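Weekly modeling sync, notes
Attendees: AB, CL, MP (scribe)

Item 1: holo prediction request
CL wants a bound-state model with flavin mononucleotide before deciding which constructs to order. AB pointed out that an apo prediction alone won't tell us much about the pocket. Agreed to run with the ligand included and paste results into these notes for async review.

Input as submitted:
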Amino acid sequence: MSVRQAFIVYCHPSDDSFTRHVLDAFTRGIADSGNGYIVSDLYRMGFRTDMTEKEYLRDAYYKNTPDLADDVLAEQEKINASDAVVFIYPVFWSEAPAKLVGWFDRVWSYGFAYGDKTMKTLDRGLILCSAGNSIENLERTGILESMKRVMIGDRLKDRVKKAEFIVFDNTSRENEMRETYWDQHLKKAYETGRHLFE
Ligand SMILES: Cc1cc2nc3c(=O)[nH]c(=O)nc-3n(C[C@H](O)[C@H](O)[C@H](O)COP(=O)(O)O)c2cc1C
């Protein structure tokens, strides 16, 4: 079977984090499956995530002009060279971190992700996020559904053939369950990487 590639968009400001362990376990799983991956580490790259006025006007007026910034083009090339796109991040204020939201503002540009689009349809879309809250709390408040709708229903939508949203819950430092669930969560991250393309 041919080697498949996952493009991972990783967004956490610190290596001293549970989310960093999720990235490491997940990529170990992909490597053990014989497949490959590339990572955009948004904070490390210093990826600019606020739109310029020019970028805004290009998208707002649906102008498919060939003047996208080099950093945006590089991200789009990574997507089109891959079979899966994976987002790994902590939940901040019931959303992805602002840096990842801004990544969508710029990289999901008109003519690439919508309109007469050049973005390929990927086989898999996957979200792995860590949350301080319990999954029960996120479900009861409707926040889990809202996060899924935004990430899968809008941002991934028909840009992937199959999408999945996985939450590693109870991971805030003041929650004693952080230690209890640590190994179990990382095993799931590893197994998800191992079986990503099955
Ligand atoms: C600025 C900030 C906002 C957060 N907002 C939420 C939130 O809305 N819901 C939630 O469940 N956890 C929230 N958390 C908790 C983080 O998701 C949690 O601490 C993180 O997943 C733990 O993993 P880490 O060690 O990788 O940071 C927030 C944390 C920070 C720092």
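Recorded for review: Residues 12, 17-19, 90-94, 130-133, 171-172 surround flavin mononucleotide (CB under 6 Å).
Action items: CL to compare against the apo run; MP to circulate these notes.
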